[in-house]
């Protein structure tokens, strides 16, 4: 299987996935990855981390089906499902083919924080074998949407 490079889906500061205040992400139950603490902007655009097909799609989260039967999950904030889509705008539909860097969702980290929710965003290689995903950016380093983030071997 070829190495798959995943790009950062949003701008912010890289954090270990263990910093996410949700055990499913923090303990890597659904797969390894990193988290991004987003820039506190009123509107932030979230882009596709790789070429793929939109699988599961919610205002606050999406999964992309990638090459070699791999999938990546991007979750915007924690417990943001409780917002019922408020403050999130989808730019794609489930089943749509997308290219790396294409805008998929716009959201407001400011509004999510104002609602008392964590804004940290897990980026997870779903069901990836242990040791197969390597972070390209160290904890505490800022990234822009589209910057290289993870290599999946």
From TrEMBL:
Primary location group: cytoplasm
Compartments reported by the entry: Cytoplasm
A Pfam family per the record: PTS_EIIA_1
Assigned keywords, A-Z: Kinase, Phosphotransferase system, Sugar transport, Transferase, Transport
InterPro entries: Dup_hybrid_motif (IPR011055), PTS_EIIA_1_perm (IPR001127), PTS_EIIA_component (IPR050890)
Domain PTS EIIA type-1: 22-127
Protein name: PTS glucose transporter subunit IIA
């Amino acid at each position: 299987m070829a190495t798959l490079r995943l790009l950062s889906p949003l701008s912010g500061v890289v954090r270990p996935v263990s910093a996410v205040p949700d055990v499913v992400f923090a303990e890597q139950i659904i797969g390894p990855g990193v988290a991004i603490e987003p820039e506190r902007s009123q509107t932030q655009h979230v882009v596709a981390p790789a070429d793929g097909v939109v699988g599961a799609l919610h205002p606050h989260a999406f999964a992309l089906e990638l090459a070699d039967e791999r999938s990546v999950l991007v979750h915007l904030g924690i417990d943001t499902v409780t917002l019922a889509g408020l403050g999130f705008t989808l730019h794609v539909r489930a089943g749509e083919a997308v290219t790396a860097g294409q805008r998929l969702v716009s959201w407001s980290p400011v509004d999510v924080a104002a609602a008392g929710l964590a804004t940290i965003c897990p980026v997870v290689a779903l069901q990836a074998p242990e040791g197969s995903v390597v972070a390209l950016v160290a904890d505490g380093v800022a990234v822009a949407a589209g910057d290289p983030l993870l290599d999946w071997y």
